Amino acid sequence: MRRLLIIGCGDVVRRALPVLLQRWRVFALVRRRDPALAALGVVQLVGDLDDARSLGRIAGIADAVLHSAPPPAEGEADPRTARLLAALAKGKSLPRSLVYIGTTGVYGDCGGALIDETRPVAPRTSRARRRADAERRLRNFGRRSGCRVVLLRAPGIYAADRLPLERIRNRTPLIRAEEDAYSNHIHADDLAGTCIAALHRGGPQRAVNVVDDSALAMGDWFDLLADAFALPRSPRLAKAEALAALSPVQLSFMGESRRIGNTRLKNELGVRLRYPTVAVGVAAALENNRGAS
């Protein structure tokens, strides 16, 4: 059975594990052992991307890599991905494919334009520049080694247990409609399914936008959630007023507007979205919450 190495075993990757474990012998780099992963049959390798000396065991171990570990919280580069690639390069055999979960934030502000993967990256925030640095390193690794690198660019990830309802309850303001920015979304289950598809069908050194079919302004997204969960809609402010009321992270999302196409996702990876719009996803979340109550 082929071997898959997971770097960053968070929520999205764990959603993919039931299928991955049927097709691969799965290894995971972990900072500390997790009984839940052990119970599933995942072989855990203790190591830390912040400590290059701890990564020796991953060299040559895998036919493929699924990389979802985030960059550090500061800086303009991603030294974690650099250390990962250096460790992989020391193996007698190199992975034949590598899938990376990144972000659509690398596009920066597109002024509300409809874009696809041919749009040059132009990250505006340090967080997005770290992701762009990771993409550059991964692409270079793929070109040098012949490894098939697939870059998955994901926007706001949501699920029944990943909704910003507390922000609505806290009455965090939104930008008024005439100044609002477009937002993009993907359900965590659909991103997990895309990871599986990319491991098998992704093209070499290829970027793929992993977004659903929605085309909503940020305020419309929060209004949809508020209405669905019977919460008061958030207040709207002029953009200049919002600058003083929102955190830098919140402003980074609200200050960048882009509508992102998903043709490659469907045509090249053959992904059929389980939740093609946020309306479908939120309806499923409501049903899930009713079932749990």
What features would you describe in this structure?
- The chain has 293 residues and is of the alpha/beta class.
- It has a domain at 3-159 and 186-212 and 258-275: NAD(P)-binding Rossmann-like Domain (Rossmann fold, 3-Layer(aba) Sandwich), CATH 3.40.50.720.
- 39% of the residues lie in helices and 19% in strands.
- It has eleven helices and 15 strands.
- The chain has helices at residues 11-23, 35-40, 79-89, 126-145, 165-169, 188-201, 218-228, 239-245, 248-254, 263-267, 278-292; strands at 3-7, 25-30, 43-46, 64-67, 97-103, 114-115, 148-154, 156-158, 174-175, 182-183, 185-187, 206-209, 216-217, 236-237, 259-260.
- A seven-stranded parallel sheet has the order 3-2-1-4-5-7-12, sandwiched between helices. A two-stranded parallel ribbon has the order 6-15.
- Helix 3 (79-89) links the parallel strand 4 and strand 5.
- It is globular.
- It starts with a strand and ends with a helix.
- The relative contact order is 0.13.
- The mean pLDDT is 94.
